[in-house]
Amino acid sequence: MFKSLLFNDYFSIFKVECNFEWTFSYLAVNGFFILSGLLIAKSLATRQDIKGYARSRILRIYPALILLLLALLFVLGPLFGSPAEVSYFAQTEPWAYVARVLLMGDPETGPGGVFHASPDPIFNGALWTIRYEVMAYIFAGLGFYMGALKNRWITLAALASSQLVYFALQFTPLAELVSGGVISLFRFTTTFLIGMTLWHFPRLRRTGWIGVSAVLVGFILLGWTSVGELFANLLLAAALVQFGLVKTPSVRIAQMPDYSYGIYIWHYPALQSVIILNPNMSPFMLLVASAPIILICSAASWYIIEKSALKLKRFGRVSKQVSGA
User: Fold this and answer.
1) pTM to 2 decimals?
2) Where do the structural domains in the chain lie, given as residue ranges?
3) Burial letters for 248-283: b for 16+ Cβ neighbours within 10 Å, e otherwise?
4) How far apart are the C-alpha atoms of 69 and 99, rounded to whole Å?
5) Per residue in 44-65, pLDDT tens?
């Protein structure tokens, strides 16, 4: 219920009035996986270094995630847990939660009663997608390593197969036999493969307003049907390449700080903290009050942890060049 308060109520204006009631947050996650698939395919195709790829993914995900979990144990837990203060990190449950999250287990709990005073006492509901992101990274890396996903037609066939399975899991009797986690797996596999397909077919990234208009018409006509999410994803992909990709590289853009991951992992605990301290706050005021905290935490994560960790990617490449000299 609280996740609906945190996300869907903010963006209810963007809710698609159809049988599936997609929210802005739902489609935003799909868009993230599409963009991630495009960027990962580019990285794998241009780098041709599976070890460097794995090192880069680990350095991108884990250092900031560890910082967040340390904040749970030594700041947020003692402040908002039950019991609070020093007794919080003397419990075994928070430490077990940390191990579980680092191993990509279920993050949607409130270890040690953290945020127990919230309407939805979960430490960080946003982390539920990180497991699927890591699985997509592994899938893409193995696919490139074995040569399959280097081929544009095999990638396209993988996308079509994933989409068909996703349809089957949603709209056939199979839906009653599988868990929501399996359905989510194919949802994100499909969107990730859309991004990878965009990389393999450069002309699809240059359709411009014609492409955006075509999928927009398809979405308007069929968005209420069982293929509606497919057209929504294609519209997201067309919009991303039209508005999100620069036509020429920019040094200024490349040097800008990247707070995206920090915002992703810190926004939920920040919202929880504010709503506990101000339980009668409206959703709009909650967002306004939380935004500076989210940005401060994200900036600290970037400058203290993420930026330094990402420099280690270059260290690995330099070491390899020196040893081969």
Assistant:
1) 0.86
2) 2-244+251-317
3) eeeeeeeeeeebebbbbbbbbbbbbbbbbeeeeeeb
4) 10
5) 998 888 888 999 999 999 999 9
